[in-house]
Task: inverse folding
């Protein structure tokens, strides 16, 4: 006769096996789900640390405080596990990178041969920091969170010589990269009158580049024109070209732009604009006209809207719309195909990995215009102003990956062609290299 106690013991052992198997299964689930989440968080945190290090390194000449402000601002524009990355001053160190030993030190001096000024960023998502990565299945096994850290070092390897070019008020950012003869921002037909003598903004980047080069030697900018673009409703010949000024840039570098806000000589030629009738508006590059700032958008980005509608939606020629002060200095980055053929060209759109259509940015408030650092996307128009915040802090712009050219123009709702004047813009590129 079989002993029933033995059967009971065997069933008890089976339950133990099931429990052990369940724990093992939960462990595998934790590995599959939680490990993937942690690895993604590590990648996101490293990306944020890299961006912060690059931005901070550009401010090394201005001191530790400026470095910290720029790094914190750029880090906050990145996310890790769904939350904005937060840096504090203690996460940011300014020091020296030794190329020979591949080490960062807070002491020493730069000789620009083997040692370079550098910034080290320590981005933390840890329990001690109060923000670890939560685990879904790991909590069942007693590990409810995981610490994730990322360290990045960027060195200021070299600083390019500043380049100063004249940015004409005719420069329409939405004609950036467009071939000669392309038209844009066509106004409503009923808008034509003697104060608005031309129908189109016309692209001709070669003519504009030659005029800018001539201005550097003569000190006087002569607007290139095209008398062949004459419409029956035009009131005069010699319509100006509207291409923006182009600057070559290095992907991943950071740049700073300065526009004088005062000085001797003609205000219209150096740091202000005139309206189409020749009356002095003296608008500064940040759109300030005697304390008044009017916000405009590109009307051609939404041609069905009423002229003067302020919105960030829509695009023109593949470049995003914007809400930004009238007459202010604005820019757009493009890759090589966009800069050569236009952002809406088949060469651009047929790339193996074409730039995504960017969203429009809103600079309608002073707080938005007072960014310390900004990281625009390709084909995304953005506000530059005079290159400083309202309190006089120099702003930094991070050049996006694959960027080839930065185009600079001014802001108008439509019909840039009847504007006068312009700005002298000085660009300095900081060649920042991620070294760790």
Result:
């Amino acid at each position: 006769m079989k002993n029933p106690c033995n059967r009971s013991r065997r069933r008890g052992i089976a339950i133990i096996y099931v429990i052990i198997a369940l724990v093992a299964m939960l462990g595998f689930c934790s590995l599959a789900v939680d490990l993937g989440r942690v690895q993604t968080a590590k990648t996101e945190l490293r990306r944020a640390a890299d961006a912060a290090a690059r931005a901070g390194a550009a401010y090394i000449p201005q001191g530790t405080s400026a470095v910290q402000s720029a790094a914190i601002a750029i880090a906050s524009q990145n996310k890790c596990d769904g939350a904005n990355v937060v840096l504090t001053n203690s996460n940011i160190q300014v020091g020296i990178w030794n190329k020979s030993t591949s080490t960062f030190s807070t002491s020493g001096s730069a000789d620009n041969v083997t040692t370079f000024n550098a910034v080290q960023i320590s981005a933390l998502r840890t329990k001690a920091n109060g923000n670890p990565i939560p685990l879904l299945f790991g909590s069942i096994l007693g590990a409810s969170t995981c610490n994730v850290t990322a360290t990045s070092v960027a060195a200021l390897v070299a600083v390019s010589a500043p380049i100063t070019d004249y940015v004409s008020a005719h420069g329409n950012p939405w004609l950036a990269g467009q071939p000669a003869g392309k038209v844009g921002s066509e106004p409503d037909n009923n808008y034509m009158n003697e104060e608005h003598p031309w129908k189109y903004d016309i692209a001709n980047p070669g003519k504009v580049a030659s005029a800018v080069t001539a201005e550097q030697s003569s000190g006087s900018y002569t607007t290139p024109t095209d008398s062949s673009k004459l419409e029956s409703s035009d009131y005069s010949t010699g319509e100006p070209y509207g291409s923006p000024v182009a600057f070559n840039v290095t992907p991943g570098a950071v740049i700073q732009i300065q526009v004088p806000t005062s000085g001797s000589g003609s205000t219209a030629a150096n740091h202000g604009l005139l309206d189409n009738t020749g009356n002095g508006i003296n608008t500064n590059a940040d759109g300030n006209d005697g304390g008044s700032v009017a916000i405009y958008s590109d009307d051609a980005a939404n041609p069905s809207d009423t002229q003067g509608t302020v919105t960030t939606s829509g695009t023109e020629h593949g470049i995003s719309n914007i809400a930004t002060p009238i007459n202010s200095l604005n820019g757009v980055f493009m890759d090589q195909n966009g800069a050569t053929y236009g952002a809406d060209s088949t060469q651009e759109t047929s790339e193996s990995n074409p730039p995504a259509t960017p969203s429009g940015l809103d600079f309608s408030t002073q707080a938005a215009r007072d960014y310390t650092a900004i990281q625009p996307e390709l084909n995304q128009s953005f506000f530059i102003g005079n290159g400083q915040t309202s309190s006089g802090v120099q702003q930094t712009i991070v050049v996006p990956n694959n960027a080839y050219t930065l185009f600079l123009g001014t802001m108008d709702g439509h019909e840039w062609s009847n504007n006068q004047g312009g700005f002298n813009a000085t660009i300095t590129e900081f060649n920042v290299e991620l070294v760790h």
Observations:
- DSSP finds seven helices and 27 strands in the chain.
- The first strand starts at residue 79 and ends at 80.
